[in-house]
Amino acid sequence: MDYLNKYDEMKRYLDDKFEMPDKTVALLIKFLGQGDGQLSKRARGKELVALTDEEIRDIENRYQEIFLEG
After folding, report:
1. From CA 43, how far away is CA 65, in angstroms rounded?
2. How far apart are CA 7 and CA 17, in angstroms?
3. Strands, DSSP E only, in 1-70?
4. Is 1 exposed, middle or buried (0-12, 13-18, 19+ CB in 10 A)?
5. Is the dihedral of CA 41, 47, 53, 59 positive or negative?
6. Cα dihedral 67, 68, 69, 70 in deg (nearest 10)
7. Global confidence as pTM
8. What are the angstrom distances between the C-alpha of 65 and each of 9, 18, 50, 59, 62?
9. How confident is the prediction along the chain (70 residues), in pLDDT tens digits per residue?
10. Which residues lie closer than 8 Å to 15 by C-beta, 6 or more apart?
């Protein structure tokens, strides 16, 4: 249950700050989970190419706050 609450919190953050389809949000959260809160260069270069480096840092930091520190 804890994971679902964290997932929902991260999804709300992404929905509020970025315009991306639910499928992309799910993929982004999956990639962050696989990379312990960091996105791989492959993910940055392929699926998430529209995001700036600053946006990626913000997303990674928020993920870490919610999933790893919370």
Report:
1. 21
2. 15
3. none
4. exposed
5. negative
6. 30
7. 0.90
8. 11, 18, 23, 10, 5
9. 799 999 999 999 999 999 899 999 999 999 999 999 999 999 888 888 889 999 999 999 999 999 998 6
10. 25
Are 46 and 19 in contact, with CB atoms under 8 Å apart?
no
Sole residue written with tokens 């995001």: 51
Coil/strand/helix, residue 49: coil
Where in the chain are the domains? 2-69
Are 61 and 39 contacting, i.e. CB atoms less than 8 angstroms apart?
A: no
